[in-house]
Design brief:
globular, six-stranded antiparallel beta sheet, 132 residues, alpha+beta
Length: 132
């Protein structure tokens, strides 16, 4: 459904998605976190904005799993009636911007701007942007 691409966070700062129900497409930019899990030693790629995760022995395998999950979730979203689609996105923290026809998500950090509660090796979590 989508050509997903990881880009460095510095290249794009705002998270948003555009939903074109006519063309059945969702595109935009969302923040993703990747790290190595302390217990399983698997690479984890997590999208807080959609609460979706991919994991694998390598970043490539984790990304492939994430792509599958995201495509499946986007297909589900596109087929929802408008009111249910909006309710689903609001439940995830997205806010509809009627002026720009974009949705924006909440940031999942603590008050000091630090990521919390990840079982990352050495507490190292890399933040990137996923172009969807």
């Amino acid at each position: 459904m989508n050509n997903l691409k990881l880009i460095p966070k510095e290249e794009k700062k705002d998270e948003f998605i555009r939903i074109n129900r006519t063309k059945k497409k969702i595109n935009g930019f969302v923040e993703c976190l990747n790290y190595r899990d302390k217990d399983t030693r698997q690479i984890i790629i997590y999208l807080p904005s959609f609460q979706l995760t991919g994991y694998g022995e390598t970043k490539e395998k984790a990304f492939e799993m994430l792509k599958f999950s995201l495509d499946d979730y986007f297909s589900y979203l596109i087929d929802l009636p408008t009111k249910k689609l909006e309710a689903e996105l609001v439940n995830l923290g997205w806010i509809h911007n009627l002026n720009k026809n974009k949705e924006y998500s909440k940031v999942f950090v603590d008050v000091k701007g630090e990521l919390k509660n990840y079982n990352a090796v050495g507490d190292a979590v890399e933040v990137e942007i996923l172009a969807v």
